[in-house]
Specification:
single chain; alpha/beta; 7-stranded mixed sheet; 6 helices
């Protein structure tokens, strides 16, 4: 049940393939955050593919404006990327570049937001290096990566939303969702407290 004043968690990620392991993993993590009381919004592969290539000076279409507005309102973000050649996919990186539009906000970039990182790849090396890259990007954007990040080896464990999931993978994804919700709740309360104090 979603409570009043619940943290708002945005999920961002996936691939061009409908029902991909990456987007399935993201959905499972978001479900976990929702089960803990969060409000959630998903920007999956289809939405990310429709975004124009990021241009700092270019106009923003409706999809880009919706993404930026959601990130601006978010208390937490879960990012899921496939490991392509040992790093984040272009699709996900392009979407993250739009965080630059938050640079002059009161909470610039991803400041004061919990960030859960999820990666999938056909092998451990790419899954782990991509997770490290995502965590570095979250730090660069001033976000707070959760203590646990999920690296999933699709060669061993395929993830399909709605189907039974390996216990270890499920634990990782549920933990990421719970941690983002918990930290998002803390950050949301702190942000309100700071705003109230500043107004006095």
């Amino acid at each position: 049940m979603v409570e009043s004043g619940a943290p708002f968690v945005v999920g961002l990620g996936g691939t061009l393939r409908p029902g991909s392991s990456t987007e399935s993993a993201l959905r499972i993590a978001l479900d976990s955050a929702r089960a803990e009381g969060a409000r959630t919004e998903l920007f999956g592969g289809r939405e990310l593919a429709a975004l124009p290539m990021y241009d700092p000076e270019g106009p923003r279409d409706a999809g880009a404006e919706r993404l930026v507005a959601a990130l601006r309102a978010a208390d937490g973000v879960i990012i899921a990327s496939p490991g392509y050649h040992g790093s984040v996919s272009g699709l996900v990186k392009n979407a993250l570049d739009y965080v630059e539009d938050l640079r002059v906000d009161t909470r610039p970039y991803l400041s004061g937001r919990a960030v859960g990182c999820v990666t999938t790849a056909y092998g451990w090396q790419a899954a782990v290096t991509t997770l490290q890259t995502l965590r570095s990007i979250a730090h660069a954007l001033r976000g707070w990566p959760t203590p646990l990040g999920a690296a999933i080896n699709s060669a061993v464990n395929r993830v399909s939303y709605g189907d039974p999931c390996d216990d270890r993978v499920q634990f990782q994804l549920h933990t990421v969702g719970r941690e983002v919700c918990f930290l998002g709740r803390v950050f949301a309360a702190t942000t309100v407290d700071v705003a109230v104090t500043a107004a006095k």
